[in-house]
Amino acid sequence: MYRIGVDLGGTNIAVGVVTEDLKIIGRGKVKTKCPRPAEEIFDDIAVAIDMAIKDAGISMDDVVSVGVGTPGSVNKSNGYIEFANNLNFNKVPAKEMLEARIGKTVYIDNDANCAALGEAIAGVGKGVGNFVAVTLGTGVGSGIIVNGKIVNGVNYAAGEMGHMVIMVDGEQCTCGRRGCWEQYASATALIAQTKDAMRHDHDSKMWQLVNDNIDSVNGRTAFDAMRMNDATAKKVVDRYIYYVAAGVINIINALQPEIICIGGGIGHEGETILEPLRKHVKRERYSIYAANQTKIMSAELGNDAGIFGAALLDE
């Protein structure tokens, strides 16, 4: 039997048919084309599922369940997407809508939780019971896995590590608080930090990398310039990694997971981030003398993490 995972994103709907030995044997993909009515989006989810089934050479009779990872807050007790701003969803009965279209049991959870579950079971955390995944992208996404299960909390919204405060009265966050980790450790924050440094140093090689167009700055700009021995870029990267470390150390102190994996666009820098990050953690973690320490590693599954995690949802 097979499971189907759906990664519902603001840009694309990606679907995979997952085998019992955790391989994707069929795929389907369509554009989300937001904003538009939820009914139309769920019609296209069904289309993408059909594409994946045909690609795998199986029938829906061979599928035991379908899982969906979605942005926003999910009420797992009734299968509603309570709110997803980038999809323009408000109290959408997602489970009911998709089950009516495909005739299969559907499970649903937050996309960051699904990515964490995917990495924990099929990726870098394979065989580990207690695991946290952190995604450094437009925001800071995260998911907590304890004893192989997603930690959802009383209102199914647990694991929002990006919204713990690391700087009291700091930068304004979109959540309403100030000083959230997301405002310092996301790719969006790194871009803002890079631009600010460039405005104070017009001789920086970062200007060359963007052809003197500051609007072309991205999450790689400071890292690339640092590799060109640009001192200002190195300061940006060093400070950014320290911000990342502040949140990672908080997670370790609070949860003591066996592994924290770092993914997302900035996570692609790999050891360039992880080596100095581990040094900060080693120096500042509360469990400084413990025999067992949290391992900090790169995510392995990339964009497939959400598909695997969604496929593995079972409640």
Provide a short characterization of the protein structure.
The protein has 315 residues and is of the alpha/beta class. Helices cover 37% and strands 23% of the residues.
Which helices and strands occur, and which strands form pairs?
Blueprint: E1 2-8, E2 12-18, E3 24-31, H1 38-56, E4 63-70, E5 73-75, E6 80-84, E7 89-92, H2 94-102, E8 106-110, H3 111-122, E9 131-136, E10 140-146, E11 149-150, H4 182-185, H5 187-200, H6 205-209, H7 221-226, H8 231-255, E12 259-263, H9 271-284, E13 295-298, H10 305-311
Parallel strand pairs: 1-4, 4-8, 9-12, 12-13
Antiparallel strand pairs: 1-2, 2-3, 5-6, 6-7, 9-10, 10-11
Helix pairs in contact: 1-2, 3-10, 5-8, 8-9
Task: Note down, in words, how this protein is organized.
The chain is built from ten helices and 13 strands. The chain starts with a strand and ends with a helix. It has a five-stranded mixed beta sheet. A five-stranded mixed beta sheet has the order 11-10-9-12-13, sandwiched between helices. The protein is of the alpha/beta class and 315 residues long. It is globular, with a radius of gyration of 20 Å. Strand 2 and strand 3 form a beta hairpin. The protein is 37% helix and 23% strand. Helix 1 crosses helix 2 (94-102). The chain has helices at 38-56, 94-102, 111-122, 182-185, 187-200, 205-209, 221-226, 231-255, 271-284, 305-311; strands at 2-8, 12-18, 24-31, 63-70, 73-75, 80-84, 89-92, 106-110, 131-136, 140-146, 149-150, 259-263, 295-298.
